[in-house]
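Researcher: Sequence recovery benchmark, item below. Answer with residues only.
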């Protein structure tokens, strides 16, 4: 009997040819992968649009805590029901839903994703995978135990520019890598690292469920101040976002980890910054950490350094000539026989040992990151950047944001024990206290 698996592999032209049972763990007898969204505007809407271009999918439910942010999905699919509480959506539509996309602020990634995985739903979750290290480990664990197909919303992983960079490194064009520098000009919005919460409390818009937006985090009053929390400013606040490295780290570090086949464990975290308080992330930060050497590196440990907020690395020791300027954001891999600069979403720049730019290489084929996840769900084949890889990539980002709280102190990370071996005060930031009604530990144990 024909199945979605054989049709997809055989390149069927139309979903109307489907005649067989669902292969998605026997949940439904549907002809297409049935999707639901948690977060339906901004990045959520761009994810939905990208998924919607796949021939063998259909959205059966949309969810957003702000109903004003569902106007675009209503136009895209007027008949699809809309929810304000994802838990209600999963309870009412669970028999129809095969997979969910999670496009919320960072602090809700784990709670939403784990809720879906425990019900056997495939999950596509935005980066960074979670808001703290304990959540990150739990996401990986639940994904393994549930056996669902997962993917990190790290679309650059599939882009031809980053795939080309990976091929250049692994083909030996710069020799063994000795050092890695990565950088990004954000954080934006002019944050100084010292701003305080807005004073007073503004009326919550009728369209917004503020209690559900706060979710697992400590409750605080709603503020209508421009770009403060919802829908845009949340990345700057420690309770909700993960700063510049949380926003861009999984993108910019992805080709580094993929090309060098880094699997961890990381160690020796060191950070300094331009100043911060207990509310927002710094305006400028520098982090460094080490990873084990691989077949593509020159030593037993490799140091990776990250700069943001306008800080740029030095090109000293690289193969770039003085006239070569670094891109606004990206990574620089300094090898024994050349240097590779990987701009963020631009073609890689390959510099030979003599400093000359080498353009003699073929561009790799780009893949559709969104379609790749849907294909994986249908074919029961895990893409290369599921939550196992996504968690490995996210963990150093979360650990760096702990190191920034202890500037100019070296923190020794024991990955197996999930603790800093030399700094007990740092360990308190590995997990958060969950608000009543949103206890992730209880959800996992239920």
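Model:
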């Amino acid at each position: 009997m024909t199945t979605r698996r054989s049709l997809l592999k055989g390149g069927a032209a139309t979903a109307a040819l489907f005649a067989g049972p669902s292969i998605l763990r026997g949940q439904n007898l549907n002809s297409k992968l049935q999707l639901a969204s948690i977060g339906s505007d901004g990045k959520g809407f761009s994810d939905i649009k990208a998924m919607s271009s796949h021939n063998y999918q259909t959205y059966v439910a949309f969810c957003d805590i702000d109903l004003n942010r569902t106007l675009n999905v209503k136009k895209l699919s007027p008949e699809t029901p809309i929810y304000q509480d994802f838990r209600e959506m999963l309870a009412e539509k669970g028999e129809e839903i095969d997979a969910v996309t999670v496009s919320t602020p960072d602090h809700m990634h784990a709670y939403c994703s784990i809720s879906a995985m425990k019900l056997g739903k495939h999950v596509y979750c935005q980066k960074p995978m979670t808001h703290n290290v304990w959540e990150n480990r739990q996401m990986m664990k639940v994904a393994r135990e549930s056996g669902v197909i997962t993917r990190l919303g790290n679309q650059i992983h599939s882009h031809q520019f980053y795939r080309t960079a990976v091929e250049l490194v692994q083909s030996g064009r710069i020799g063994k890598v000795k050092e890695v520098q990565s950088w990004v000009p954000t954080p934006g919005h002019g944050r100084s690292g010292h701003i305080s919460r807005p004073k007073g409390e503004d009326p919550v818009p009728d369209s917004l469920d503020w209690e559900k937006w706060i979710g697992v985090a400590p409750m605080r009053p709603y503020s209508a101040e421009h770009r403060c929390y919802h829908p845009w400013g949340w990345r700057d606040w420690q309770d909700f976002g993960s700063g510049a490295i949380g926003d861009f780290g999984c993108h910019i570090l992805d080709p580094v980890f993929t090309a060098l086949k880094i699997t961890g464990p990381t160690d020796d975290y060191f950070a300094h910054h331009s100043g911060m308080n207990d509310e927002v992330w710094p305006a400028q930060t520098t982090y460094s950490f080490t990873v084990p050497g691989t077949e593509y590196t020159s030593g037993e440990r490799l140091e990776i350094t990250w700069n943001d907020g306008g800080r740029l690395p030095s090109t000293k020791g690289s193969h770039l000539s003085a006239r070569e300027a670094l891109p606004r954001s990206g990574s620089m891999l300094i090898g024994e026989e050349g240097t590779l600069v990987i701009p963020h979403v631009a073609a890689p720049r390959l510099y030979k040992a003599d400093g000359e730019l080498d353009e003699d290489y073929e561009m790799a084929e780009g893949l559709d990151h969104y379609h790749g996840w849907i294909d994986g769900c249908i074919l029961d084949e895990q893409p290369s950047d599921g939550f196992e890889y996504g968690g490995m990539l996210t963990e150093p980002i979360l650990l760096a944001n702990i190191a920034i709280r202890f500037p100019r102190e070296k923190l020794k990370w024991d990955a197996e024990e999930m603790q800093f071996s030399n700094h007990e005060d740092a360990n308190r930031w590995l997990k958060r206290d969950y608000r009543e009604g949103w206890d992730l530990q209880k959800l996992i144990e239920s």
